[in-house]
Amino acid sequence: MSVQTDSINHSEIIHVKTRAVACDGGAGPLGHPKVYLRIPGKQIACPYCSRIFILDGEGADTGH
Asked: With CB atoms 3.0 to 4.6 Å apart as the test, which of 27, 28, 36, 50 could cross-link to 11 if both were Cys?
């Protein structure tokens, strides 16, 4: 049995314009509970699904 390492540790990268973001896994009922994250520097990873949110520019400080 072979293991495909391409799919292991694969994270979706999402570019955003605000420091406040929400993540629900993006898979509808197969996702995870919605969490709200605040980007402290330039990026943050979702603790559930490891999606990476990258801040484009300075980022508006609006949202939740």
From this structure: 50
